Amino acid sequence: MKFEHGPIETVPLSVPSLALRKEGALRRSEPLLRVDGLSKSYDGRTFALCDISFEVERGEFVAVIGSSGAGKSTLLRCIDRLIDPTSGIVEFEGVDLTRLRGRRLRTSRRRISMVFQSYNLVLRSSVIQNVLQGRLGYKSTVAGALGCFSEEDKELALEMLDRVGMADHAYVRADRLSGGQKQRVGIARALVQQPALILADEPIASLDPRSSRTIMELLRSAADELGIACLVSLHQVEYAREFSDRIFGISQGRECCQGTPERFTDEVLVEVYEKGLLG
Ligand SMILES: Nc1ncnc2c1ncn2[C@@H]1O[C@H](COP(=O)(O)OP(=O)(O)OP(=O)(O)O)[C@@H](O)[C@H]1O
Ligand SMILES: [Mg+2]
């Protein structure tokens, strides 16, 4: 477990009803994310994802690996509802996201941040303006469109920029940054959303080894220190093994293997990648 508990508080004694105690017990054992029987077909004939099931606990770091076209991005996009799954359940904080629409979906999605391979920054805007985009889910549409952010939002943005080592670049235009710096801003934007889950789709695919390590360390510390679960698709197996609590291997849209990094021996990796290539 990664959470550190403070001193135990004494609370006034009261006996909760059985129903409430049962509910509490259920909540404690409930995973943060439960994906069950998830499938996605883009063309109605072939499946990019087929019957995928797994869970992610709060504060857990899970890597998704698989060859090109295996379905990693499709999986992350279905979880964040950037695309609609064809069938299956995506239960996040106890709510099935696949059944939500409109405001209720937007409210649940606030607790899920995305980090992209290509950073998705507004290049002509300053770094802090980019980070503040992560607060948009908490604003009315009008306030968001007018760029009205509170002092608290700005303080939080600066705090998160400091966390990723970019506070001194807060007022620099985003197009002046290197790739590694852009991704650090992408992570700060994800963090100001105060998410319970970060979905990162190949966050280090465009970076050199040094920047890649920094980004992986930042994501890992978000899990360890802030209790934010991370589901990270990666091509770099060695980073998946080093940084993850668990790895989920996909091949041709289907689960190939899931478990601790130790389970991903060279033989298992051959299966994950060769099956995909032979496809
Ligand atoms: N928008 C789309 N329309 C139709 N087919 C798609 C679409 N996006 C992905 N696919 C197909 O779905 C399958 C899975 O693609 P996906 O992008 O999820 O794989 P990936 O594991 O992320 O690959 P990569 O490592 O190259 O990013 C592939 O066969 C791909 O061609
Ligand atoms: Mg992809």
Task: Describe what this molecule looks like in 3D.
By secondary structure, the protein is an alpha/beta fold. The protein has 2 domains: 33-111 and 195-279, 3-Layer(aba) Sandwich (Rossmann fold), CATH 3.40.50; 120-191, no CATH class. Helices cover 37% and strands 20% of the residues. A 6-stranded mixed beta sheet has the order 6-7-8-3-9-10, with helices on both faces. A 4-stranded antiparallel beta sheet has the order 2-1-4-5. Helix 6 (151-163) crosses helix 7 (179-192) and helix 7 packs parallel to helix 8. The longest helix has 18 residues, at 209-226. It is globular and about 50 Å long. Mean pLDDT is 88; it is low at 1-27. Bound molecules: adenosine-5'-triphosphate (ATP) and magnesium ion (MG). The site of adenosine-5'-triphosphate (ATP) has 10 residues, from helix 2.
Instruction: Classify the secondary structure makeup into a structural class.
Output: alpha/beta
- Give a list of the ligands: adenosine-5'-triphosphate, magnesium ion
- pLDDT averaged residue by residue: 88
CA distance, first residue to last residue:
38 Å
Quote the beta fraction. 15-25%
- Identify the CATH homologous superfamily of the largest domain: P-loop containing nucleotide triphosphate hydrolases
Taking the sheet with the most strands, its summary is: 6 strands, mixed
Q: Overall 3D geometry?
A: globular
How many structurally independent domains?
2
DSSP summary: helix tally: 10
CATH topology of the largest domain: Rossmann fold
What is the CATH level 1 assignment of the largest domain? Answer: Alpha Beta
Number of strands: 10
